[in-house]
Amino acid sequence: MSQFYISDTRSPSPGSRSASDSDEDLTTLPFAQPLQRSDFLAPDFTPSTYLSTLSNRHQTLEDLRSELRSRSQLLSRELLDLVNANYADFLTLGNSLRGGDEKVEGVRVGLLGFRKEVAGLEQLVRGREEEVDALVRQRRETRKKIEVGRRLVEFEERVKACEEGVAVGEGDGSESSESEEDDDDDEDGFGTSVARLRSNVVQYRLAKEVVKGLEEHPFVLAQAHRLSKVRSTILLDLSTALQQAKKAGDAGSGRVMQLMKIYADMEESGEAIKVLKTLKK
C-alpha cells in the first residue's frame, strides 16, 4: 500500500537492518493531524490544489481517503440538519402565505380609496389656487384703479392751481414772497414778475407730468381744454414779458435770459424764437 511519509536522508549500510527494524521506524513517524475545516472554506479552494498540499503527510492513501470520506459525510449530515431545522419554518411560511390574495386585495382597495381622496384634495387645492389667483389679480387691478384715481385727483388740483396762477391780475405788486426768490428781478417798468411766470410754468409742467401715460383717459381728455387754455395764457404772458424786456435794451438783457430759460423749462423754446423774430421785423 502506498504511503505519504518523509524518508530518512541517511543511507544505512547493507544488511544493517532487519524487517522488524523497518516496522519500528514506521511506527515512530509523527501522527497525521486531522484535516482542518477551515481549509475547505477558502474562497479559492480546489480539490487538486488542496491534495497537492498533502504530499508531506505521514499517512497512507487509504487513511486519507477515509478521512476525506468522513469529512464529506459530516458535511452532508450538517446540511441535512440545517434543512430539517428550517423546514418547520418553511412550512409555517407557506401556511402564512395562504389567503394572501385577500390581504393584497384589501390593501389594493385601501390604496385606491386613498388615491381617490388625494385626487379630491388635489382638485380642492387647485380650486383654492385659482380662487387666490383671481383675488390677487383683482387686488392688482383695484390698486391700479386707485392709483389712476389718485393721479386724476392730483391732476385736477394742479390744473386748478394753474388756472388760479394765470388768473392773478397782471401788474399785481403784492408778490413779496416771489420777489425774494429772484432778488435780481427789477419789477419797475415790467409786467408780471419772472418769479410768477416761473411758478406758473412749474405748475403747468407738474399737471402734465402727473397724467403721463393717461393722456387718453376720458377725464384727462375732458380737461384738455382747460390745460390748453392755461398753456395759451402762460405763453401770452411770456411773450409780453419778453417783448418788454427786449425793448428795454441793455436794462432788460438779464430779464431776457431768464425768460428764455423759462421757455426752455416749458419746452416751448420755439415760441420764444417766434417772438424774437417778430420783434426784429
Description:
The structure is a single chain. By secondary structure, this protein is an all-alpha fold. Helix content is 70%, strand content 1%. The chain contains 10 helices and 2 strands. The chain has helices at residues 19-27, 47-52, 61-97, 100-166, 176-181, 194-210, 218-222, 224-247, 253-265, 269-280; strands at residues 3-4, 59-60. It has a two-stranded antiparallel sheet with strand order 1-2. α4 (100-166) runs antiparallel to α6 (194-210), α4 crosses α8 (224-247) and α8 packs across α10 (269-280). The radius of gyration is 60 Å and the shape is elongated. It starts with a strand and ends with a helix. The relative contact order is 0.06. The model is unreliable at 1-24 and 168-186 (pLDDT under 50). Belongs to the COG2 family. It is a peripheral membrane protein. Residues 10-19 have a biased composition (Low complexity).
Number of helices, counting only DSSP H or I runs of 4 residues or more: 10
Shape descriptor: elongated
* CA gyration radius, whole angstroms: 60 Å
Name the helix and strand elements from N-terminus to C-terminus, one letter apiece: EHHEHHHHHHHH
Strand order of the largest sheet: 1-2
* Beta-strand content: under 5%
Q: Report helical residue fraction.
A: 55-70%
Classification by helices and strands: mainly alpha
Uncertain ranges = 1-24, 168-186
